[in-house]
Amino acid sequence: MSRRSAPTVASWNVWMGNTPANIRRGLRALIDAGADVIGCQELSVDASYLDARSFMATLGWGSTAKNNAIPIFFDEAVYDLVDEDYQVVNLGGEPWEPGTGGDTVIRKALTWVRLKHRATGEETYVVNNHIVPGIEADGQIRKDVPKRLAVYVEQMDALAEICRAFSRTGAAVAATGDFNLAHNEPSGEDLRRRMGAVGFRSCWQALGDDQPTHGDRIIDYVWFDRCWAKSDRVLDKYGSDHSPVVCDLNPYLRTYVVDRSRFVDPDDGKNFLWGVNVATGEAELKRKPGFAITTGVAITTIKGRKWLVTEAGYRYALSFLRPA
After folding, report:
1. What is the dihedral of CA 295, 298, 299, 303, to 10 degrees?
2. How far apart are CA 151 and CA 149, in angstroms?
3. What tens digit of pLDDT does each residue of 266-310 get?
4. 71, 83, 178, 256: which could join 114 in a potential S-S bond, CB 3.0 to 4.6 Å?
5. What integer pLDDT is reported at residue 300 of this predicted model?
6. Using CA atoms in the order 151, 153, 156, 161, what is the torsion angle rounded to 10 degrees?
7. pLDDT tens sequence across 81-114
8. More confident residue, 201 or 262
9. How far apart are CA 12 and CA 178, in angstroms?
10. CATH numbers and ranges of domains, the chain
11. Separation between Cα atoms, residue 44 and residue 17, nearest integer Å
12. What pLDDT, on the 0 to 100 scale, is given for residue 116?
């Protein structure tokens, strides 16, 4: 059970051909590894979904209600379910290029939950999805599958839109899934660009400890905003062709907000100047000319407090890292 308000989030493509017994073993291993929220992909409708849901219920875990391949499971000792939804992105059925997944578009959707931490009352959103297969070859995005790529763009646009909306609530947000583009190949840059545009980073970016999840490729991700990755680990496959990834998120971050009519200078004018983004109402840190800082994974200390530094365009936002 988590004793922090930030979750430990896991993502696992269980493989549609896996056995219920193996899936149960894998889910149990994820719980033992500390996960309190799990996004799965390729659970077959009815058979493995219903078995997994029943098994998790015996362990005190809840799940999203929709009988589908991309459910989210959560520890009910840690979280209350506030809201959930299953958002269809593409109904499927239209012809596309032959290959993995067949000759017609696979129905594509997003599953999401809004969870409230039982001890702190703080909320977390988790979004789960499975990106279209067959769009990468030799580490590059394929140019010869335009119909598949159109579905990919449709999926990523929908994911970015919902992640942006949830992030604006001020709650922590995580996105899980099999993204079918490898972090450790040039194709992964497109994912980083799209998710980075809405302020999200992956566990692989944050921690730099690349661990393959599908053959020698890293295609399974935990993305996040309003929180930060502390550690991650990759487990055995448990009968799948994918290894699950588990990511421990740091305690929640609080972005420093100031009155819009004034500027705040957190370090007596040495390197930074505070301003406010009038669109979001959040404080932003403007870099003084000639002063450079490392962003993203950087933790810096200003006036005795630790802050996470993230970059948005030419500005820097500082978030106060609350102790665990």
Report:
1. -40
2. 5
3. 444 444 444 434 344 444 445 444 444 333 434 455 555 555 555
4. 83
5. 52
6. -110
7. 999 999 999 999 999 999 998 999 989 999 999 9
8. 201
9. 8
10. 8-250 (3.60.10.10), 255-321 (no CATH)
11. 9
12. 95
Q: How far is CA 128 from CA 68, 95, 131, 290, in A?
A: 12, 25, 10, 41
Sign of CA dihedral 11, 16, 20, 25: negative
Q: What are the structure tokens assigned to 115, written together?
A: 């969870």
Dig out the tokens for 188 from the structure: 């992964």
Band the pLDDT of 143: cuts 50, 70, 90: very high
SS3 of the chain: the string is CCCCCCCEEEEEECCCCCCHHHHHHHHHHHHHCCCCEEEEECCCCCHHHHHHHHHHHHCCEEECCCCCCCCEEEECCCEEEEEEEEEEEECCCCECCCCCCCCECCCEEEEEEEEEECCCCCEEEEEEEECCCCCEECCEECCCCHHHHHHHHHHHHHHHHHHHHHHCCCCEEEEEEECCCCCCCCCHHHHHHHHHCCCCEEHHHHHCCCCCCECCECCEEEEEECCCEEEEEECCCCCCCCCCEEEEECCCEEECCCCCCCCCCCCCCCCEEEEECCCCCCEEEEECCCCCCCCCCCEEEECCEEEEEEEECCEEEEEEECCC
Q: Which two tokens stand for residue 120?
A: 């702190």
In terms of residues, how long is the chain?
324
Give residue 304's pLDDT: 54
pLDDT at 204 over 70: yes
pLDDT at res. 290: 42
Average pLDDT, the chain: 82
Angle between helices 47-58 and 20-32 (to 10 degrees): 40
pLDDT band at 314 (very low <50, low <70, confident <90, very high): very low
Instruction: State residue 48 phi and psi, 5-degree precision.
Output: -75, -30
Q: Give yes or no for residue 2 having a pLDDT over 80.
A: no
